[in-house]
Predict the 3D structure of the following.
Amino acid sequence: MSFAKIYGHSRQIDMLRQTMTQGRVAHSYLFSGPDAIGKKTVALAFAAALNCADAAGSDACGVCASCRKMTSGHHPDLHLLATQAQFLRIDAVRGIQEQMAFKPLEGRRRIFILDDADKMNEQAANALLKTLEEPSADNILLLVTARPYWLPQTILSRCRHVRFSPLSVQTVARFLTEQKKEEPSRAAVLASLSGGSIGRALELNSEETMAFREALGRLLSDADQGALPRPIALASFLAQDKREIRRGLAILKSFFRDALVFRETAAASMTINADALPLVSALAARLTGEDLLHNIALVDKAHETIEMNVNKSLTLEAMAFKLHL
Ligand SMILES: [Zn+2]
């Protein structure tokens, strides 16, 4: 993996490259930001760049022996620590300390990537703190986490903090069209539902998601003559799969957002759900701009509330009854 192949995160990558060209690489970094947006990918590219045989550049060449081993995950100086368990334990940190006593085996630096670093228990964190207090020039620690606030302040203060944001919708869509050869219209829909995460967009890329979106669209359409009042039908549809509520809300919001855009521009090309134009234009005709803004705010609010683990069905019903439909 090289920096050049990464989609987005250009500000963070530029900063890391600059520290390399200026010879100011720190001993420990904290990469923080939402889950599954590419923090670990950037950490791996940084590790590869730091050990690439083409030492003049600030990116991995991808072809030298070091880069090839980094890519295959077999570089003896790259240590990726992650735990499937609840905690990252002290043995793992002790292992790091033992390694650090020796020179790197092949590369210029030995790199430890601690994924989900917030999972360290107290003992492990204390041991790691000792390591951070006695840095060694040959070793670099990269802590990766979506929850930096769970790490002790003493650790945070000893790491250079690099903050990552979700990717833009355009960047995710570009990845899908360029790397996965998706149709631009489908890529736009998936990207808008991905929350700025390529991993999430790939997860959503299924016929099931597309069928779900179609069914949700039908519930909003003028032709809907279901047995249940529309808000009840909508709330129970969104609640049917508890793990996928966020996906449902993202799709619902995208319909309201599209209707708002379509009201203003009458341009299908500006919409996310360009393939569902009859529904988008019907919503745009049926609802005012104010209605649509009101609905978008309600969906956002429901999303926030559900993130806080409040009763999901109740939240969805409360939202559905307030929507202007
Ligand atoms: Zn290389």
